[in-house]
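Hey team,

Filing this mostly as a record. A colleague (T.K.) asked me to run one chain through the structure pipeline before their review meeting, and I want the input and output archived in the tracker in case anyone asks later how it was produced. No errors, nothing strange. Just documentation.

Input sequence:
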Amino acid sequence: MNTTAPLLETVEFETGPSPTWTVLWLHGLGADGHDFAPIVPELVRREWPALRFVFPHAPVRPVTINNGMRMRAWYDIVHFDFDALHTDANRNRADETGVAESVAQVEALIARENERGIPAERIVLVGFSQGGAITLSAGLRRRVPLAGLAGLSTYLPEAPAQAAAALQAAATSQPLFMAHGQFDPVVPAAIGLRSSQAMKAMGFDLEWHDYPMAHQVCAEEIRDLGDWLSRRFAG
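Output structure:
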C-alpha cells in the first residue's frame, strides 16, 4: 500500500490520556474536518477505552457537478448518474485518480497512527457521503485489516467488477457498518443499499440500517453506530 502521500491536516480529539484506539473519520463533500467533531460527546460511552478521533480535511479541488467550483472534496464528481456506475465501468461518476489519491492519503494517516502506537487492529475508519465512499474503497484494499469500517449515507465508488478486482483477501475480515437515510436526495437510499449488497457479496460481515431521514445523521444512527463500536472495542 502506498503510504508516501503527504499528510493531510487534521482536527484531533482524545477522550482520555494515552489513547489505545483511533477512530479516523472522513467528512463529506464541501465540509471539513470540523464537521463531525461535535458528534464525539454524543457518541462516546463511559466504558470505552481512551480514543483518539482524527478528522482530516480533504484537499481543495474543482468539482465538475458544482460548475467546477473549488471546495474540499475527496475526489471530483463528474456526473450525476449513479446508474452508470453499475452498467458502464468507464462512466464512473467518481474521478478514479482522485479516489486513488485519497485512499493513499488515508493510508498515510493510518501509518501515522501505527507510528503513534495504534496498530491497525485498533483503528476504525468511518466516513460520511463522499468520505464514506473513500472508506469503502480503502477498506476493500486493506492487506492488514482494520478493526472495522463504517460508511454513512454513502456508496461504493467503483463498479462491482472493479471493486472485486481490487479486493484483498484479508479485507473481508473487517466488520462493516452501513447506514442510510430513506429520503436521501443526494445519495438515494437504493444506491446505498445496492452498494451494501455489493460489499456483502464480496464477503464483508455487514450490518445495515436505514432511517426516516435525508442526507444527514440522526440520534438513532449515532446510537446504533455506538452499539457497533462497543462490540469492536470489546473484541
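Quick notes for T.K.: Confidence is low (pLDDT under 50) at residues 87-91. The first helix runs from residue 40 to 43.
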